[in-house]
């Protein structure tokens, strides 16, 4: 089984599958001292990893290049996965979650939202479904949204349920089970990833998982705001209506 790992990169947590960086979660915008960074990096490695997200197929060379990308933002990249499989830090990580019993009893193609923790109202769910439909109609990108509190998640089971491919964008909103720096998580297929610069994903995560933003708006409204931001980014004409 492919395990979805979290690696600490300066004030950024980068999420990787088999070495491929597929998401980032930034911490405080205030840059700490070098000693503080070292303490935080040590803590990050002992936190639960984000195994509930999805694997992507990629060549070893491609994986290596993608793993090195966070170095451009400053900080030391710590490669995880197979290289750390026998390390004490890796041993503390929980097993990957795969709980198909938490999936809805509906067809995955007609269910773009999975709300395991009952975070959303019926109205909010309908708004998200509408906006996801607008994105897919305009771009072919399949937005899928999972609301969870790790480890209460179907995890890897969503891969087959949603038939995740290179045109799928999975947004996982975790309400704290993965820690304060892993609330907003993206897993973008290769074709989706190519549509936006790396800075877009980072800036979106930085904004919406900021502690003050979350405290003011709450998880449900934050999730709604993220989906709206994705809709506006992929379908600019929709935001002008």
How does this model look, in words?
It is a single chain. The chain has 241 residues and is α/β, with parallel strands linked by helices. The chain has 9 helices and 7 strands, in the order E-E-E-H-H-H-E-H-E-H-E-E-H-H-H-H. A 4-stranded mixed sheet has the order 4-5-6-7. A 3-stranded antiparallel sheet has the order 1-2-3. Helix 4 (122-139) runs parallel beside helix 8 (211-234).
Task: Give the topology.
Layout: E1 4-9, E2 12-17, E3 20-26, H1 34-46, H2 60-68, H3 88-91, E4 113-115, H4 122-139, E5 142-148, H5 157-161, E6 168-174, E7 184-188, H6 190-193, H7 198-208, H8 211-234, H9 236-239
Parallel strand pairs: 4-5, 5-6
Antiparallel strand pairs: 1-2, 2-3, 6-7
Helix pairs in contact: 4-8
Summarize the structure.
The chain has 241 residues and is an alpha/beta fold. The protein has helices at residues 34-46, 60-68, 88-91, 122-139, 157-161, 190-193, 198-208, 211-234, 236-239; strands spanning 4-9, 12-17, 20-26, 113-115, 142-148, 168-174, 184-188.
Task: Tag the structure with descriptive keywords.
241 residues; alpha/beta; 4-stranded mixed beta sheet; globular
